[in-house]
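LAB NOTEBOOK - FOLDING QUEUE
OPERATOR: T.R.
BATCH SIZE: 2
PURPOSE: Compare the predicted C-alpha coordinate outputs for two unrelated chains run back to back under identical settings.
PRIORITY: normal
REVIEWER: second-year student, initials M.K.

ITEM 1
FIELD SEQUENCE / FIELD STRUCTURE:
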Amino acid sequence: MVTANSEECIMSLQGIHKGLYDAGGRTLNSKVKVLENVNFSIYRGEVHVLLGENGAGKSSLMKVLCGVIPADEGRLEWKGSAVKFGSANDAHKKGIGLVAQEFSLCPNLTIAENIWLGREPKKFWPLQIDKKKMRQDAVRYMQMVSLDLDPGIRVRDLTVAHQQLVEISKALSMDPEVLILDEPTSALADNQVERLFSVVENLIRQDVSIIFISHKLNEVMRIGHKVTVLRDGKTVETCKVKELDHVDDLVRMMVGRKLASLKFSDADHIGKTVLKTSGITRGSRLQ
Protein backbone atom coordinates (compact mmCIF):
# COMPACT_ATOMS: atom_id res chain seq x y z
CA MET A 1 0.00 0.00 0.00
CA VAL A 2 1.25 3.50 -0.87
CA THR A 3 2.07 5.65 2.16
CA ALA A 4 -0.27 8.54 2.97
CA ASN A 5 1.13 11.80 1.69
CA SER A 6 0.59 14.29 4.52
CA GLU A 7 -1.02 15.10 7.84
CA GLU A 8 -3.13 17.93 6.40
CA CYS A 9 -6.75 17.46 7.47
CA ILE A 10 -9.03 18.14 4.51
CA MET A 11 -12.45 17.40 5.99
CA SER A 12 -13.60 16.87 9.55
CA LEU A 13 -16.99 15.96 11.01
CA GLN A 14 -17.28 16.52 14.75
CA GLY A 15 -20.07 15.44 17.10
CA ILE A 16 -22.53 14.66 14.32
CA HIS A 17 -26.09 13.83 15.40
CA LYS A 18 -28.98 12.89 13.10
CA GLY A 19 -32.41 11.60 14.07
CA LEU A 20 -34.67 9.36 12.04
CA TYR A 21 -35.30 11.17 8.75
CA ASP A 22 -37.49 10.96 5.65
CA ALA A 23 -36.50 10.69 1.99
CA GLY A 24 -35.93 14.45 1.83
CA GLY A 25 -33.56 14.44 4.81
CA ARG A 26 -36.03 16.10 7.20
CA THR A 27 -35.75 14.77 10.75
CA LEU A 28 -38.92 12.96 11.81
CA ASN A 29 -37.88 11.86 15.30
CA SER A 30 -34.80 13.34 16.93
CA LYS A 31 -35.01 10.83 19.80
CA VAL A 32 -34.40 7.89 17.45
CA LYS A 33 -30.73 8.37 16.62
CA VAL A 34 -29.40 7.35 13.22
CA LEU A 35 -26.10 9.08 14.04
CA GLU A 36 -25.02 9.93 17.56
CA ASN A 37 -21.91 11.99 18.36
CA VAL A 38 -20.00 10.66 15.32
CA ASN A 39 -16.49 11.93 14.59
CA PHE A 40 -14.69 11.39 11.29
CA SER A 41 -11.71 13.06 9.58
CA ILE A 42 -9.99 12.56 6.24
CA TYR A 43 -6.41 13.68 5.52
CA ARG A 44 -4.78 14.55 2.24
CA GLY A 45 -3.58 11.60 0.18
CA GLU A 46 -4.89 8.86 2.47
CA VAL A 47 -7.36 6.01 2.14
CA HIS A 48 -9.71 6.09 5.12
CA VAL A 49 -11.94 3.03 5.27
CA LEU A 50 -15.42 3.42 6.77
CA LEU A 51 -16.55 0.08 8.15
CA GLY A 52 -19.69 -1.20 9.81
CA GLU A 53 -22.54 -3.65 9.57
CA ASN A 54 -25.74 -2.87 7.67
CA GLY A 55 -27.58 -0.14 9.54
CA ALA A 56 -24.46 1.09 11.32
CA GLY A 57 -24.87 4.61 9.87
CA LYS A 58 -22.26 4.61 7.10
CA SER A 59 -24.59 5.85 4.35
CA SER A 60 -26.20 8.48 6.58
CA LEU A 61 -22.79 9.85 7.58
CA MET A 62 -21.74 10.12 3.93
CA LYS A 63 -25.02 11.86 3.09
CA VAL A 64 -24.19 14.48 5.72
CA LEU A 65 -20.66 14.84 4.36
CA CYS A 66 -21.95 15.19 0.77
CA GLY A 67 -24.65 17.74 1.63
CA VAL A 68 -27.51 15.38 0.79
CA ILE A 69 -29.01 15.66 4.29
CA PRO A 70 -28.30 18.16 7.08
CA ALA A 71 -27.01 17.13 10.49
CA ASP A 72 -29.19 17.96 13.50
CA GLU A 73 -26.13 18.81 15.57
CA GLY A 74 -22.38 18.90 15.05
CA ARG A 75 -19.72 20.73 13.12
CA LEU A 76 -18.29 20.25 9.63
CA GLU A 77 -14.88 21.71 8.80
CA TRP A 78 -13.17 22.05 5.44
CA LYS A 79 -9.43 22.66 5.80
CA GLY A 80 -9.93 24.00 9.31
CA SER A 81 -12.86 26.33 8.60
CA ALA A 82 -16.48 25.63 9.49
CA VAL A 83 -18.76 24.92 6.52
CA LYS A 84 -22.42 24.17 5.91
CA PHE A 85 -23.63 22.32 2.85
CA GLY A 86 -27.14 23.23 1.77
CA SER A 87 -27.04 20.75 -1.09
CA ALA A 88 -24.89 18.15 -2.82
CA ASN A 89 -23.86 20.85 -5.28
CA ASP A 90 -22.30 22.85 -2.42
CA ALA A 91 -20.19 19.81 -1.52
CA HIS A 92 -19.17 19.31 -5.16
CA LYS A 93 -18.02 22.92 -5.38
CA LYS A 94 -15.82 22.45 -2.31
CA GLY A 95 -14.20 19.38 -3.84
CA ILE A 96 -16.12 16.30 -2.66
CA GLY A 97 -16.91 13.61 -5.22
CA LEU A 98 -19.00 10.48 -4.80
CA VAL A 99 -19.05 7.20 -6.70
CA ALA A 100 -22.22 5.54 -5.42
CA GLN A 101 -22.76 1.80 -5.26
CA GLU A 102 -25.58 2.17 -7.79
CA PHE A 103 -24.23 3.65 -11.03
CA SER A 104 -25.81 6.83 -12.42
CA LEU A 105 -24.67 6.39 -16.02
CA CYS A 106 -26.86 6.75 -19.11
CA PRO A 107 -26.42 3.48 -21.07
CA ASN A 108 -27.30 4.94 -24.47
CA LEU A 109 -24.72 7.72 -24.22
CA THR A 110 -21.00 7.36 -24.91
CA ILE A 111 -18.28 7.34 -22.29
CA ALA A 112 -17.36 10.95 -23.07
CA GLU A 113 -21.00 12.08 -23.03
CA ASN A 114 -21.52 10.46 -19.61
CA ILE A 115 -18.39 12.04 -18.14
CA TRP A 116 -19.44 15.54 -19.25
CA LEU A 117 -23.22 15.16 -18.97
CA GLY A 118 -24.69 18.57 -18.10
CA ARG A 119 -21.23 20.21 -18.36
CA GLU A 120 -20.51 19.74 -22.06
CA PRO A 121 -17.82 22.05 -23.49
CA LYS A 122 -19.27 24.54 -25.98
CA LYS A 123 -17.87 26.10 -29.12
CA PHE A 124 -17.74 29.89 -29.06
CA TRP A 125 -19.77 30.15 -32.27
CA PRO A 126 -22.16 28.71 -33.09
CA LEU A 127 -23.22 27.77 -29.56
CA GLN A 128 -23.03 23.99 -29.84
CA ILE A 129 -21.26 21.13 -28.09
CA ASP A 130 -17.56 20.86 -28.88
CA LYS A 131 -17.46 17.09 -29.32
CA LYS A 132 -13.77 17.01 -30.21
CA LYS A 133 -12.78 18.78 -26.98
CA MET A 134 -15.23 16.65 -25.00
CA ARG A 135 -13.56 13.46 -26.25
CA GLN A 136 -10.04 14.82 -25.67
CA ASP A 137 -10.85 15.93 -22.12
CA ALA A 138 -12.58 12.62 -21.40
CA VAL A 139 -9.44 10.71 -22.40
CA ARG A 140 -7.39 12.73 -19.90
CA TYR A 141 -9.53 11.55 -16.98
CA MET A 142 -9.86 8.03 -18.37
CA GLN A 143 -6.06 7.78 -18.38
CA MET A 144 -6.04 8.62 -14.66
CA VAL A 145 -7.89 5.35 -14.00
CA SER A 146 -6.11 3.34 -16.73
CA LEU A 147 -9.28 3.08 -18.83
CA ASP A 148 -7.83 2.47 -22.28
CA LEU A 149 -11.00 2.55 -24.39
CA ASP A 150 -12.48 4.67 -27.17
CA PRO A 151 -14.46 7.49 -25.44
CA GLY A 152 -17.04 7.12 -28.21
CA ILE A 153 -18.13 3.65 -27.02
CA ARG A 154 -21.65 3.54 -25.61
CA VAL A 155 -21.81 2.67 -21.91
CA ARG A 156 -24.33 -0.12 -22.52
CA ASP A 157 -21.57 -2.07 -24.28
CA LEU A 158 -19.16 -1.95 -21.32
CA THR A 159 -18.52 -4.50 -18.59
CA VAL A 160 -19.51 -3.63 -15.02
CA ALA A 161 -15.84 -3.06 -14.14
CA HIS A 162 -15.40 -0.62 -17.03
CA GLN A 163 -18.64 1.19 -16.12
CA GLN A 164 -17.29 1.70 -12.64
CA LEU A 165 -14.10 3.22 -14.03
CA VAL A 166 -16.26 5.56 -16.12
CA GLU A 167 -18.05 6.61 -12.91
CA ILE A 168 -14.71 7.31 -11.25
CA SER A 169 -13.52 9.23 -14.34
CA LYS A 170 -16.70 11.31 -14.18
CA ALA A 171 -16.10 12.10 -10.51
CA LEU A 172 -12.46 13.01 -11.21
CA SER A 173 -13.54 15.40 -13.98
CA MET A 174 -14.93 17.61 -11.19
CA ASP A 175 -11.40 17.79 -9.69
CA PRO A 176 -12.31 16.47 -6.22
CA GLU A 177 -9.92 16.62 -3.30
CA VAL A 178 -11.99 13.98 -1.49
CA LEU A 179 -13.44 11.02 -3.38
CA ILE A 180 -15.96 8.69 -1.74
CA LEU A 181 -16.10 5.12 -3.08
CA ASP A 182 -19.23 3.37 -1.78
CA GLU A 183 -18.82 -0.44 -1.80
CA PRO A 184 -16.78 -0.22 -5.03
CA THR A 185 -15.80 -3.91 -5.13
CA SER A 186 -19.22 -5.43 -4.55
CA ALA A 187 -19.74 -6.44 -8.20
CA LEU A 188 -16.12 -7.03 -9.22
CA ALA A 189 -14.11 -10.20 -9.78
CA ASP A 190 -10.78 -10.63 -7.95
CA ASN A 191 -8.64 -9.45 -10.88
CA GLN A 192 -10.89 -6.40 -11.32
CA VAL A 193 -10.56 -5.59 -7.61
CA GLU A 194 -6.78 -5.53 -7.94
CA ARG A 195 -7.09 -3.15 -10.89
CA LEU A 196 -9.33 -0.88 -8.83
CA PHE A 197 -6.80 -0.91 -5.99
CA SER A 198 -4.10 0.14 -8.46
CA VAL A 199 -6.33 3.06 -9.52
CA VAL A 200 -6.80 4.06 -5.86
CA GLU A 201 -3.05 3.95 -5.24
CA ASN A 202 -2.47 6.12 -8.31
CA LEU A 203 -5.02 8.67 -7.08
CA ILE A 204 -3.46 9.04 -3.63
CA ARG A 205 -0.10 9.66 -5.30
CA GLN A 206 -1.87 12.67 -6.82
CA ASP A 207 -2.96 13.81 -3.33
CA VAL A 208 -6.60 12.78 -3.75
CA SER A 209 -8.08 11.62 -0.44
CA ILE A 210 -10.22 8.48 -0.59
CA ILE A 211 -13.08 7.46 1.70
CA PHE A 212 -13.49 3.75 1.01
CA ILE A 213 -16.75 2.22 2.27
CA SER A 214 -16.64 -1.54 2.51
CA HIS A 215 -17.90 -4.55 4.43
CA LYS A 216 -15.05 -6.81 3.26
CA LEU A 217 -12.53 -6.99 6.08
CA ASN A 218 -9.62 -8.18 3.95
CA GLU A 219 -9.94 -5.03 1.82
CA VAL A 220 -9.40 -2.87 4.90
CA MET A 221 -6.05 -4.54 5.53
CA ARG A 222 -5.11 -4.38 1.84
CA ILE A 223 -5.97 -0.81 0.84
CA GLY A 224 -6.51 1.32 3.97
CA HIS A 225 -4.28 3.71 5.88
CA LYS A 226 -6.89 4.31 8.58
CA VAL A 227 -10.21 2.71 9.48
CA THR A 228 -13.20 4.08 11.35
CA VAL A 229 -15.77 1.59 12.61
CA LEU A 230 -19.40 2.58 13.20
CA ARG A 231 -21.84 0.54 15.25
CA ASP A 232 -25.47 1.50 15.92
CA GLY A 233 -24.84 5.03 14.65
CA LYS A 234 -21.86 5.67 16.93
CA THR A 235 -18.12 5.88 16.38
CA VAL A 236 -16.55 2.79 17.93
CA GLU A 237 -12.93 3.48 17.08
CA THR A 238 -10.59 5.09 14.57
CA CYS A 239 -7.12 3.63 14.18
CA LYS A 240 -4.29 3.14 11.73
CA VAL A 241 -4.57 -0.11 9.81
CA LYS A 242 -0.93 -0.98 10.48
CA GLU A 243 -1.72 -0.98 14.20
CA LEU A 244 -4.22 -3.83 13.79
CA ASP A 245 -2.84 -7.24 14.68
CA HIS A 246 -5.49 -9.25 12.87
CA VAL A 247 -8.78 -8.95 11.00
CA ASP A 248 -10.43 -10.30 14.17
CA ASP A 249 -9.80 -6.87 15.72
CA LEU A 250 -12.17 -5.39 13.14
CA VAL A 251 -14.81 -8.02 13.88
CA ARG A 252 -14.60 -7.19 17.57
CA MET A 253 -15.11 -3.48 16.86
CA MET A 254 -18.01 -4.14 14.48
CA VAL A 255 -20.03 -6.54 16.63
CA GLY A 256 -18.84 -5.62 20.11
CA ARG A 257 -17.30 -8.94 21.13
CA LYS A 258 -14.48 -11.26 20.17
CA LEU A 259 -14.83 -13.66 17.28
CA ALA A 260 -14.33 -16.63 19.63
CA SER A 261 -17.50 -15.72 21.51
CA LEU A 262 -19.64 -15.89 18.37
CA LYS A 263 -21.51 -19.13 17.96
CA PHE A 264 -22.14 -20.63 14.54
CA SER A 265 -24.74 -23.31 13.93
CA ASP A 266 -24.09 -26.25 11.66
CA ALA A 267 -27.68 -27.46 11.94
CA ASP A 268 -28.73 -26.12 8.55
CA HIS A 269 -28.61 -28.76 5.87
CA ILE A 270 -27.68 -27.79 2.34
CA GLY A 271 -29.55 -29.95 -0.14
CA LYS A 272 -28.85 -30.99 -3.71
CA THR A 273 -27.99 -28.49 -6.41
CA VAL A 274 -31.17 -27.00 -7.89
CA LEU A 275 -29.64 -24.82 -10.61
CA LYS A 276 -26.13 -24.73 -12.05
CA THR A 277 -24.75 -22.59 -14.89
CA SER A 278 -21.38 -22.28 -16.56
CA GLY A 279 -19.76 -20.55 -19.51
CA ILE A 280 -22.54 -17.98 -19.99
CA THR A 281 -21.53 -15.16 -22.33
CA ARG A 282 -23.34 -12.17 -23.75
CA GLY A 283 -21.04 -9.95 -25.77
CA SER A 284 -18.66 -7.89 -23.63
CA ARG A 285 -21.14 -7.35 -20.81
CA LEU A 286 -21.19 -10.89 -19.46
CA GLN A 287 -18.22 -13.23 -19.82
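ITEM 2
FIELD SEQUENCE / FIELD STRUCTURE:
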Amino acid sequence: MLSNKSKAIGYIMLSAFGFALMTAFVRLAGDLPFTQKSLFRNLVAVTVAAIVLRREKCGFKWEKGNLPLLILRSTCGTLGIFCNYYAIDHLVLADANILNKMSPFFAILFSLFLLKDARISGSISPCSRRSAARCSSSSPASRRTPFRRSSVCSAAWAPVRRIPLSAR
Protein backbone atom coordinates (compact mmCIF):
# COMPACT_ATOMS: atom_id res chain seq x y z
CA MET A 1 0.00 0.00 0.00
CA LEU A 2 1.25 3.49 -0.85
CA SER A 3 1.95 6.04 1.84
CA ASN A 4 0.09 9.34 1.91
CA LYS A 5 3.23 11.13 0.73
CA SER A 6 3.51 8.84 -2.31
CA LYS A 7 -0.16 9.33 -3.12
CA ALA A 8 0.24 13.12 -2.85
CA ILE A 9 3.21 13.08 -5.21
CA GLY A 10 1.24 10.95 -7.65
CA TYR A 11 -1.74 13.30 -7.52
CA ILE A 12 0.49 16.33 -8.07
CA MET A 13 2.08 14.67 -11.10
CA LEU A 14 -1.34 13.68 -12.43
CA SER A 15 -2.56 17.25 -11.97
CA ALA A 16 0.48 18.69 -13.77
CA PHE A 17 -0.04 16.21 -16.62
CA GLY A 18 -3.72 17.18 -16.84
CA PHE A 19 -2.93 20.88 -17.02
CA ALA A 20 -0.22 20.29 -19.63
CA LEU A 21 -2.73 18.25 -21.64
CA MET A 22 -5.29 21.04 -21.33
CA THR A 23 -2.70 23.54 -22.56
CA ALA A 24 -1.94 21.34 -25.56
CA PHE A 25 -5.64 21.06 -26.41
CA VAL A 26 -6.06 24.83 -26.11
CA ARG A 27 -3.22 25.24 -28.60
CA LEU A 28 -4.72 22.58 -30.88
CA ALA A 29 -8.08 24.41 -30.87
CA GLY A 30 -6.69 26.45 -33.72
CA ASP A 31 -7.46 29.97 -34.74
CA LEU A 32 -10.27 30.59 -32.28
CA PRO A 33 -9.87 33.83 -30.32
CA PHE A 34 -8.53 33.36 -26.78
CA THR A 35 -11.73 34.89 -25.39
CA GLN A 36 -13.80 32.15 -27.00
CA LYS A 37 -11.45 29.46 -25.70
CA SER A 38 -11.73 30.85 -22.19
CA LEU A 39 -15.53 31.05 -22.48
CA PHE A 40 -15.78 27.32 -23.20
CA ARG A 41 -13.28 26.53 -20.45
CA ASN A 42 -15.30 28.54 -17.95
CA LEU A 43 -18.57 26.91 -19.06
CA VAL A 44 -17.06 23.52 -18.27
CA ALA A 45 -15.82 24.81 -14.89
CA VAL A 46 -19.25 26.26 -13.99
CA THR A 47 -20.93 23.00 -14.96
CA VAL A 48 -18.60 20.94 -12.79
CA ALA A 49 -18.94 23.38 -9.87
CA ALA A 50 -22.75 23.33 -10.14
CA ILE A 51 -22.79 19.53 -10.13
CA VAL A 52 -20.57 19.39 -7.05
CA LEU A 53 -22.60 22.05 -5.21
CA ARG A 54 -25.86 20.26 -6.00
CA ARG A 55 -24.50 16.84 -4.97
CA GLU A 56 -23.14 18.22 -1.68
CA LYS A 57 -26.42 20.11 -1.11
CA CYS A 58 -24.72 23.37 -0.21
CA GLY A 59 -25.47 26.72 -1.73
CA PHE A 60 -23.38 29.59 -2.94
CA LYS A 61 -23.64 32.35 -0.34
CA TRP A 62 -21.67 35.48 0.44
CA GLU A 63 -21.92 38.31 2.91
CA LYS A 64 -23.11 41.63 1.55
CA GLY A 65 -19.92 43.49 2.52
CA ASN A 66 -17.70 41.01 0.69
CA LEU A 67 -19.43 41.31 -2.68
CA PRO A 68 -17.14 44.07 -4.08
CA LEU A 69 -14.05 42.02 -3.22
CA LEU A 70 -15.57 38.91 -4.81
CA ILE A 71 -16.36 40.86 -7.97
CA LEU A 72 -12.80 42.24 -8.00
CA ARG A 73 -11.41 38.73 -7.55
CA SER A 74 -13.54 37.30 -10.36
CA THR A 75 -12.57 40.18 -12.67
CA CYS A 76 -8.86 39.69 -11.97
CA GLY A 77 -9.23 35.92 -12.34
CA THR A 78 -10.93 36.33 -15.71
CA LEU A 79 -8.18 38.69 -16.87
CA GLY A 80 -5.64 36.13 -15.68
CA ILE A 81 -7.32 33.39 -17.73
CA PHE A 82 -7.39 35.69 -20.76
CA CYS A 83 -3.68 36.41 -20.36
CA ASN A 84 -2.93 32.69 -19.86
CA TYR A 85 -4.72 31.74 -23.09
CA TYR A 86 -3.07 34.62 -24.91
CA ALA A 87 0.32 33.32 -23.71
CA ILE A 88 -0.59 29.78 -24.83
CA ASP A 89 -1.41 31.11 -28.29
CA HIS A 90 1.70 33.29 -28.65
CA LEU A 91 4.50 31.63 -26.63
CA VAL A 92 6.13 28.23 -26.56
CA LEU A 93 3.92 25.81 -24.58
CA ALA A 94 6.63 25.17 -21.99
CA ASP A 95 6.96 28.91 -21.27
CA ALA A 96 3.18 29.30 -21.01
CA ASN A 97 2.97 26.38 -18.55
CA ILE A 98 5.82 27.77 -16.43
CA LEU A 99 4.06 31.14 -16.25
CA ASN A 100 0.86 29.44 -15.15
CA LYS A 101 2.67 27.57 -12.38
CA MET A 102 4.42 30.75 -11.17
CA SER A 103 1.17 32.53 -10.25
CA PRO A 104 1.05 31.22 -6.62
CA PHE A 105 4.51 32.67 -6.05
CA PHE A 106 3.33 36.05 -7.36
CA ALA A 107 0.28 35.80 -5.08
CA ILE A 108 2.66 35.62 -2.13
CA LEU A 109 4.54 38.67 -3.37
CA PHE A 110 1.32 40.62 -3.93
CA SER A 111 0.06 39.83 -0.45
CA LEU A 112 3.41 40.97 0.95
CA PHE A 113 3.52 44.31 -0.86
CA LEU A 114 -0.15 45.21 -1.32
CA LEU A 115 -1.58 43.91 1.94
CA LYS A 116 1.53 44.43 4.10
CA ASP A 117 1.19 40.86 5.37
CA ALA A 118 3.88 40.50 8.04
CA ARG A 119 3.51 36.71 8.26
CA ILE A 120 4.86 36.35 4.74
CA SER A 121 7.76 38.80 4.87
CA GLY A 122 10.00 36.39 6.78
CA SER A 123 9.16 33.40 4.61
CA ILE A 124 10.48 34.80 1.30
CA SER A 125 14.23 34.58 1.14
CA PRO A 126 16.37 36.81 -1.09
CA CYS A 127 17.34 33.65 -3.00
CA SER A 128 13.66 33.03 -3.82
CA ARG A 129 13.26 36.61 -5.02
CA ARG A 130 16.25 36.27 -7.36
CA SER A 131 15.05 32.95 -8.76
CA ALA A 132 11.58 34.40 -9.42
CA ALA A 133 13.14 37.33 -11.25
CA ARG A 134 15.15 34.92 -13.40
CA CYS A 135 12.16 32.69 -14.14
CA SER A 136 9.89 35.55 -15.11
CA SER A 137 12.38 36.84 -17.68
CA SER A 138 13.99 33.62 -18.91
CA SER A 139 13.60 34.19 -22.65
CA PRO A 140 13.32 37.30 -24.82
CA ALA A 141 9.85 36.25 -26.04
CA SER A 142 8.57 35.83 -22.50
CA ARG A 143 9.47 39.38 -21.46
CA ARG A 144 6.41 40.88 -23.10
CA THR A 145 3.36 39.15 -21.59
CA PRO A 146 4.34 36.77 -18.77
CA PHE A 147 4.85 39.08 -15.84
CA ARG A 148 1.62 40.90 -16.58
CA ARG A 149 -0.24 37.58 -16.87
CA SER A 150 1.14 36.22 -13.61
CA SER A 151 0.60 39.54 -11.90
CA VAL A 152 -3.05 39.75 -12.92
CA CYS A 153 -3.66 36.14 -11.95
CA SER A 154 -2.01 36.68 -8.58
CA ALA A 155 -3.85 39.91 -7.95
CA ALA A 156 -7.05 37.86 -8.03
CA TRP A 157 -6.06 36.23 -4.74
CA ALA A 158 -5.06 39.42 -2.92
CA PRO A 159 -8.61 40.75 -2.27
CA VAL A 160 -9.73 37.35 -0.95
CA ARG A 161 -7.04 37.48 1.72
CA ARG A 162 -9.01 40.34 3.32
CA ILE A 163 -12.23 38.31 3.57
CA PRO A 164 -12.65 36.81 7.05
CA LEU A 165 -12.18 33.04 7.24
CA SER A 166 -15.78 32.56 8.37
CA ALA A 167 -17.01 33.94 5.04
CA ARG A 168 -14.82 31.72 2.84
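REVIEWER COMMENT (ITEM 2): The radius of gyration is 18 Å.
FOLLOW-UP: none requested
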